[in-house]
Amino acid sequence: MAKVTVDGIVVEVPNGSTVLQACELAGKEIPRFCYHERLSIAGNCRMCLVEIEKAPKPVASCAFPVADNMVVKTDTPMVRNGRRGVMEFLLINHPLDCPICDQGGECDLQDQALGYGMDHTRYEENKRAVKDKNLGPLVKTVMTRCIHCTRCIRFVTEIAGVPDLGATSRGESLEVGTYVEKALGSELSGNIIDLCPVGALTSKPYAFVARPWELKKTDSVDVLDAVGTNIRIDSRGPEVLRILPRLNEEVNEEWLADKARFSMDGLKRRRLDRPWVRRDGKLVQATWGDAFTVIAERLQGVAGERIGALAGDLCDAESMVALKDLLTALGSANLDCRQDGVLLQAGRRDFYTFNSTIAAIEEADALLLIGTNPRREAPVINARIRKRWLASKMLIGLIGETAELTYDFQHVGGDAGAFDGLRDASAGFGKTLADANKPMVIVGQPALRQPGVLAAVWELAGAIGALAGEWHGFNVLHTAAARVGALDLGFVPGQGGRDLAGMLNGGVDVLWLLGADEFDTARIGRNTFVIYQGHHGDRGAARADVILPGSAYTEKSGTYVNTEGRVQRGLRAVYPPGEAREDWTIIRALSEVLGKTLPYDDLPGVRARLEQVNPVFGRTNFLPRFGVSDRSGPGQGSGRASGPFGVAIENYYQTDPISRASPTMAACTETFATTPLLQAAE
Amino acid sequence: MNIGTRIFTMLYGRRVGADADGNVYYEARRLRRFSGQSRRWVAYRGAAEPSRIPAEWHAWLHYTTNAPIPETARQPWQKPHQMNLTGTPASYRPPGHDYRGGHRAAASGDYEAWTPGS
Amino acid sequence: MTETNSSNGVQPESFAWDAESEAAIGRVVAKYPPGKQASGVIPLLYIVQNQMGRQTGSAWIPRAAMDAVAHRLGMAPIRVYEVATFYLMFNTKPIGKWHLQVCTTTPCWLRGSDAVVEACKAATGIGAFGETSEDGLFTMTEVECLGACVNAPVLQVNDDFYEDLDADSTRQLLDALRRDAPPRPGSVTGRQTSAPAGGPTTLTTLQNLGPPPPDAVQPPRER
After folding, report:
1. Phi then psi for C27, rounded to 5 degrees?
2. How much is the pLDDT for C157?
3. Does residue C124 share a domain with residue C80?
4. Rounded percentage of chain A residues whose pLDDT exceeds 90
5. Does residue C120 share a domain with residue C76?
6. Closest residue to C82, CB basis, from A167, A173, A180
7. Which residues of chain C from 35 to 64 reach within 8 Å of chain A, CB to CB?
8. Residue A577: which of B108, B111, B116 has the nearest Cβ?
9. C-beta of residue A93 within 8 angstroms of C-beta of residue A142
10. Is C79 on the interface with A (CB under 8 A)?
11. Residue A122 burial (CB < 10 Å; 0-12/13-18/19+)?
12. pLDDT by residue (tens digit) across A373-408?
C-alpha cells in the first residue's frame, strides 16, 4: 500500500494504482476523456493533469503510478492552466455544432469545457474535416467531432474482442475508423456510443430524436436475454426512446448487448392494443367484456385436465404466478414454460441456474462450454469470459457446434459422446479440467434438449471437481428471461399434468399462451381453443381465438429472475398502448368473471403471493454465493443423448416478438446475415 | 345604426367616406373642446362587428392618421381585409380536428397496432 | 485515409510472397520469441515494399499485402493498417520507380532546397508534392529533416541520399535516373562524406599517405 496525500487528504492505495485512482479515492474529481476504468490506459488526452510535488511539470494522472509519500495537488494554478491549455488544443479542431449534436447535454467535452474552456478562440485557421465512417446500422459517426481518445478502439479490441477499429495515419490526418469500410461485427458495439466522450459516435436509430433533459429515466431490467442486464429506460410521453445500461458490477458491469439496446423500436410496431375475438373464423375487434364472456362460455363445462397454459420467454413472474393460480383453481396441472423443449425440472435450484454467478467467472481457471455459444446467447457474459481469458489465459473447451467466439478455445467434441473422454484426467482437456482449482462448466439450452445430458453434465462436473463445498462450477446458461422465474414458480407440469408436447396436437381443448411465440403454433390441435395474452402480434396471436392485449417489459412493473437466479425488479416506464393492461391484472380480472377470484388485487399482494410460492422472490438484487451441499445428481430420465446439440440462436438479432418487430434489428439482420461474425484474431 | 345614433349623425356628423365593405365613417363637424380633435365614428352596414373595419380606416378611426389611408395606397401583397372569424362556423380548425374529419397525421409517439393477417 | 472497397481501383486483389521475401521473413520472425511475432510488423512491411519494387517497379504496400502481413504474424489486420499508415516511409499508394524525397526543412531550405524542388518539377513535369510524373518514373514528396544537414540540400531517391545539390546537379541526377543509371550516392560535388567543402583543413598530411604497409611501424610524427 502506498500513502498518498491528495490536496491534504491522506489516502492509502495499493501499489501500482494510478494517481488518478488515488485522487478518486480522496474524492477529488479529475477530468478525463481517454481514461476509463474498464479499458487499458492510453494517456493520450492529457486532460487529467495534476501537480505532483517535486515533479517539474504537470503529469497525466491516469498513466502515472503512485509512489509512497507522494503529494498530489489537483487544484493549483499550474493544474488549471495546464488543463485549460489541453482543452484549448482539443477544441482547435472540434466543431462548434453542439446545437445539432446528439451528444448535447450529456457530452463530456461540453461539461469539461464549462470548467476549463476559454470564452473565445485564438485560432483563425480552418478546422479540419474528417469523412464520416459507415459502421453499420447501429452506430452513427460524425468523425469530425472525434478527439482521438481511442476509447472505442480499446473497447472493441479488449472487451468486445472484435478488433476492427483502429487509428490510421498520424498527426493532423489521424483518423479513427476501420480503414477498410465494414460494419462493426460485435454484439456489444452499442457500448462505444456510451463510451464516446463526444458526439463522434452516436446511436443511429436515436439520431435527432430527443435531448437528454426531456427524457424520463426509469430503472428496469432487460428481458431480451437471460442475463438480466440492468437498464435505464429513457422515455418521453408514451414512447420509449432509448435504453441504456445501468451499472451493476455483479451482472453486466456497465455493458449492454445490442439487441437489448436497439430493439426498443419494436415496441411501437405490431402491438396488440385491443382485445380480438375469432368469430366465424375471422378475428374481430372486441371489448374486454366480450373477450372475457367468450372465454367464460368456452370454458363452461371443460374439464380441468383439458385446459393448458404455456408461459413465454419474456413474462414477468407476477403474471406467471397469477396464471398458475388461475389454472390450479380451474383444476389443471397442464403448465409449461419450456417452449424449446429443454429437459429442466423445477425443484432443486442448482440444477437450472448459473450457480457460480457471473462475477465468479473472473475466478475460474478452466471453462467447459457445452452446447452453447455465449457470444450469441449472452453477449455480456461472453465479455466476462473474455475478460477472464485475457487476464489469465484461462483454458476454454467447447463441446457442441463450433462457433466464432471472442477467445481461443479447444473444440473437444460435437455431442454428448465427448463427456467420457473428459473424465480422463491424464491427457487432453480432461487434464486441464482436473488440474484446475476452480473449473467451470456452462451448459446451454440445445444440449439440455437431449435426454440424460443434464445428469451427465452434473456427473462430469462432479468428476472434475467443479462441485466443491466452496465452489459451485455447474452452470446452466438460459436464453429466455422468464425461464428461471418460471421454474422457480413451478410453472411446469404438476401431478399428472401434460407438458408442451402433450398439450399440442389436441392434447388440451383450451390452451392459454402467455406471450408464448417460440414454438411451432401449427402443432396446436385444430380444435384447440387458443387464448393468446401478450403484447405483440406474432405467431401466437395469428393462431389465437381470443387475444388479450398485455404489456411489454417497459410497460409494467415486473419481477424477473436472471440465469443466475438473481431476482430483479423492473419499473414501469410508459403505459401500455390502447386497451392493453398489465398482464397479471388481466388474469385477475378474468378470474372474477370465471368465478374463481384470485386472492390478490394489488401489486404488493401478488408479490406476497410470489414469496409464498418460492421464498427466493423475497430478496431482490441479492444473490448469495454458495458451494455444493448435495452432490446427488438429477434423475437420468429415459432415452439416450444422441446427435449434435445444434444451436440455440441462429440469428442473434431476431429472437423474440419485440426484436422481430424492430426495423433496426431487421436492418442488422440484413447487414450481418452476409458477413458472419468475425473471429477474434489475437 | 339605431335611431339615436342616426339623429346624432344627421345633426353633427359629416360623412368622410366608406370602405369596401360598405361601412360608412363620420366625423363631427365641430372640434371637441379639450382635445381639439373632432369625434370620429362608424356606421356599420349590417351587424356591428368592430373587426370588420379594415386597417386603413382603423388607423383613422383611432386618430393614428389625420386622414384615412386611401384605397389606392394598398400594396399588391396585401390580402383583402377579413373580419375575425373566431366563434363562427368559418373559424380555423387545425388538421385532425373533429370538425375536419378527425384524421390526425401520425406523430412520433404513435404506435402501429397489429391487425390480423399482417 | 479510409480505403473504401470500391474507391481505389489500383488495389490488387491478392498478394503472394516471393522466394526472396520468404527468406527475409524467416530471418525477421526468428528474432522474436514465440507469441511476440507481431513485433516484426515493420520489417515485414519493408519486405513487402521491396518485393513490390522488384516486381512492379513501384515500391508500395497494397492492402492485400497488409492483410498478408497480418495473417503471417497472427495479428488483426487493423493493427497492420495502423502501422503502415503511420509511417510515411511506407507508401500506401502506388508510386513512381524513383521516389524523390526532397528535404525542405530549415537547413536544406536555407541552402537552396527551393531550387532543387523547382528543378525536380521542371525536369519531371510534376506539379506539386505527392504527385507522380506522367511517365510513371518519378514521384516527388516533401520530407522533413533527413539528418544530412551538413550536406544540405539533400534529395533522397528511394533509399539513397544525394547531397550538396543545386539546380544543375539535380537536373543531371534526374537525367541519369531517367537513363536508369543512378550515380554513386553521396555528395554530388565529390567531397568526402561531410568533410569541409573546400577540402580538409585539419589532418591535411594524411591525404598524401596511402595505406600504411601492414608490417611497418609508424614512427611518431614530428610537429
Report:
1. -65, -40
2. 93
3. no
4. 83
5. no
6. A167
7. 63
8. B111
9. no
10. yes
11. exposed
12. 999 999 999 999 999 999 998 999 999 988 889 999
pLDDT digits (tens, 9 = 90+) for A309-348: 999 999 999 999 999 999 999 999 999 999 998 999 888 8
Q: Are residues A343 and A608 in contact, defined by beta-carbon separation less than 8 angstroms? A: no
The domain containing residue C165 runs over which residues?
A: 98-187
C and B touch with 3+ CB pairs <8 Å, answer no
Beta-strand ranges (E) seen in chain C are 98-103, 138-143, 155-157, 160-163, 186-187
Is C121 inside a domain boundary?
yes
Measure the N-to-C terminal CA separation of chain B; round to a whole number of Å. 67
- Can you give the CATH number for the domain in which C72 is found? 1.10.10
**What percent of chain C clears pLDDT 90, i.e. is strictly above it?**
69
What Cα–Cα distance (Å) separates residue C82 from each residue in A45, A164, A258, A464, C46? 19, 11, 27, 44, 15
Q: Is residue C59 part of a domain?
A: yes
Q: How confident is the model at residue B94 (pLDDT cuts 50, 70, 90)?
A: confident
Task: Please tell me the distance from the alpha carbon of residue C44 to that of residue C29, in angstroms, as a whole number.
Answer: 9
Same domain, C178 and C144: yes
Confidence tier at A130 by pLDDT (50, 70, 90) = very high
C102 and C73 fall within a common domain: no
Judged by a CB distance cut-off of 8 A, whether residue A202 touches chain C is no
Same domain, C60 and C102: no
- The secondary structure of residue A159, as a DSSP letter, is I
Average the pLDDT over A654-664 and give the result.
94
- How much is the mean pLDDT over chain A? 92
What backbone torsions phi and psi does residue A221 show, to the nearest 5 degrees? -130, 135
**pLDDT of res. C146:** 93
**Whether residues C183 and C123 fall in one domain:** yes
Domain coordinates in residue numbering, chain B: 3-75
Last residue of a domain, one of C62, C86, C110: C86
In a domain, C199, yes or no: no
User: Which member of B110, B113, B116 has the closest CB to residue A283?
Assistant: B116
Let me know if residue C73 belongs to a domain. yes
Span between the terminal Cα atoms of chain A, in Å: 34
- Interface confidence (ipTM) of the complex: 0.88
> Are C78 and C136 members of one domain?
no
Does A674 contact chain C (CB < 8 Å)? no
Q: Are C106 and C131 members of one domain? A: yes
* The pLDDT of residue A631: 86
CATH (domain of C107): 3.40.30.10
Q: Is the Cα torsion angle A488, A489, A490, A491 positive or negative in sign?
A: negative
Residue B112 contacts A, CB cutoff 8 Å: yes
Number of domains making up chain C: 2
**Residue whose C-alpha cell is 457446434:** A401
Q: Are C125 and C180 a contacting pair, CB within 8 Å?
A: no
- Give residue A369's pLDDT: 95
* Contact yes or no for A268 and B110 at CB 8 A: yes
**Is a pLDDT exceeding 80 seen at residue C6?**
no
Q: Over the stretch A230-255, which tens digit does the pLDDT of each residue have?
A: 999 999 988 999 999 999 999 999 99
**Is the per-residue pLDDT at C211 higher than 80?**
no
